[in-house]
Specification:
CATH architecture of the largest domain: 3-Layer(aba) Sandwich
Number of domains: 2
Radius of gyration: 15 Å
CATH class of the largest domain: Alpha Beta
Order of helices and strands: EEEHEHEHEEH
Helix content: 25-40%
Number of helices: 4
Largest sheet: 5 strands, mixed
Amino acid sequence: MTTGTILIRCRSCRTLNRVPLERIDQHPVCGQCRSGLEVPHEPINVTAASYDQQVQDWPETLLAEFWAKWCGYCRTIEPFVNGLAARRKGGLKIIKVDVDAEPALGRRFLVKATPTFILYRNGQQVGRFDGAPVQSVDLEYWIDKTIPR
């Protein structure tokens, strides 16, 4: 694991906590209220009701994937996206939006092709990748190019 720290917002008291990366697997707790801090290690399925809060609450890098069950490439890239979430837990949060189940979000973000990826940093959109990358690793390269670690 790399050295450094990440910021995690406590879901209970909303305090930002600085957590050393080497302690991310040790169930960190909030310095203010002592509640356990959530460190996502796999993509989180979100709805229209939870999308904005998920984006705004995460002070680090967040990748939103708009996908569909019928999309062959979405299924092909799923293991890579899951692995990416596990490898970069704490530093990269991944949320997924099923455009068939949440058509309002698809319209809101003008999703014309699946998958579509939107990259956020501290709640602000910093990049967008429409359609499928040629290779799975191209997605990770695009993230690193957009937001260097």
